[in-house]
């Protein structure tokens, strides 16, 4: 299998990352643990979670699984901080106060002494970036965190953080985790070139566009009862179901059938093999989902197929909005 460097760190990670957002939520603990073990057996060595996922249950389950199977040292373990985890005024955000408490809670739930990749889940629009980076720097120096990363940041804020790290000799981001799929290619305009120039790994979330690119939603716009948009009842999720996005999803399904693949496999393969991409994050809800995705790690996108995808959604453009879960993106994409 082709393992890829996590930015310029030299740490080698699998070309797919196991996302744990479903664990402890729609996926019960016992099946979640089986999925983790199967993923490791299948060659995945990279797991991503967050302190906010399912009230901390995701971190707890991941920690329990790695404790029971004794494979913690074989895994590059990533989690995130920022989102609100309580009712108090300091139970969220990018302040030193919150980060220092949140990391201890994550370490306890994950049953580990060190988090390999600690990511700022969203950028703060009010707290100076040096305040956050100094807290991260202390965590790295103390050995509680090995590397730090960003998630869903605009390119200019990633660059600001890199410049601040350089100016004050602080630890620097090694990765950015943006939404990226065929329906929303906007990171290709600025973020991808930035990450390529400065050696940051790109770890896309929602590579299957919430299942739209896996053929989960019919063109009539109805919501299957086991789909994410139906289960979450989250307005932002439903806003992503644009008519044009559903049409592109149907075209991807046709292309996949012609190639003997599932739509999910082809969409994931496209994302995995795009320039600058390190490891797309898959979020299997069931073991069947994981088994569908694992073979993609050994596949390679054919060069002659790339223009076919570009014809569906032009590079740098979008037909559905996957940046609608943050405060900084002003543009909206609707039918």
Which structural class do you get from the secondary structure elements?
Answer: alpha/beta
Total E-strand runs: 10
Distance between the termini: 41 Å
The strand line-up of the biggest sheet is 9-8-7-6-5-4-3-10
Task: Give the radius of gyration.
Answer: 19 Å
CATH superfamily: NADP-dependent oxidoreductase domain
The third-level CATH topology is: TIM Barrel
Strand content: 5-15%
Mean pLDDT: 96
The CATH architecture comes to Alpha-Beta Barrel
**Residue windows where pLDDT falls under 50 for at least 5 positions:** none
- Largest sheet descriptor: 8 strands, parallel
N-to-C SSE series? EEEHEHEHEHEHEHEHHHHEHH
CATH uppermost class = Alpha Beta
Total domain units? 1
Note the overall shape: globular
How many helices? The count is 12
Share in helix = 25-40%
GO molecular function, one term: oxidoreductase activity
InterPro entries: AKR, AKR_Detox_Biosynth, NAD(P)_OxRdtase_dom_sf, NADP_OxRdtase_dom
Domain NADP-dependent oxidoreductase: 15-312
Protein name: Aldo/keto reductase
């Amino acid at each position: 299998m082709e393992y890829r460097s996590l930015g310029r760190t030299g740490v080698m990670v699998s070309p797919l990352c196991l996302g744990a957002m479903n664990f402890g939520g729609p996926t019960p603990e016992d099946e979640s643990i089986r999925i983790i073990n199967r993923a490791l057996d299948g060659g995945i060595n990279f797991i991503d979670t967050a302190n906010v996922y399912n009230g901390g249950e995701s971190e707890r389950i991941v920690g329990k699984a790695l404790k029971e199977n004794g494979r913690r040292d074989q895994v590059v373990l990533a989690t995130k901080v920022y989102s609100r985890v309580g009712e108090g005024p300091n139970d969220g955000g990018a302040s030193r106060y919150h980060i220092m408490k949140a990391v201890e809670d994550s370490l306890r739930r994950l049953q580990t002494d060190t988090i390999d990749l600690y990511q700022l889940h969203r950028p703060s629009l009010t707290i100076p970036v040096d305040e956050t980076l100094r807290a991260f720097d202390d965590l790295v120096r103390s050995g509680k965190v090995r590397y730090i990363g960003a998630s869903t940041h605009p390119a200019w804020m990633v660059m600001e953080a890199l410049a601040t790290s350089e100016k004050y000799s602080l630890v620097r981001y090694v990765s950015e985790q943006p939404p990226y799929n065929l329906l929303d290619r906007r990171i290709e305009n600025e973020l991808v070139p930035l990450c390529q120039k400065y050696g940051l790994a790109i770890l896309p979330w929602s590579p299957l566009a919430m299942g739209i690119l896996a053929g989960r939603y019919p063109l009539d716009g109805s919501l299957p009862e086991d789909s994410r948009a139906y289960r979450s009842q989250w307005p932002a999720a439903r806003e992503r179901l644009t008519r044009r996005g559903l049409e592109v999803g149907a075209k991807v399904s046709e292309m996949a059938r012609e190639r003997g693949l599932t739509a999910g496999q082809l969409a994931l393969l496209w994302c995995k093999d795009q320039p600058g991409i390190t490891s797309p994050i898959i979020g299997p809800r069931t073991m069947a989902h994981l088994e569908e995705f694992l073979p993609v790690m050994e596949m390679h996108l054919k060069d002659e197929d790339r223009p076919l995808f570009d014809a569906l959604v032009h590079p740098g453009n979008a037909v559905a909005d996957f940046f609608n879960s943050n405060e900084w993106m002003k543009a909206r994409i609707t039918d």
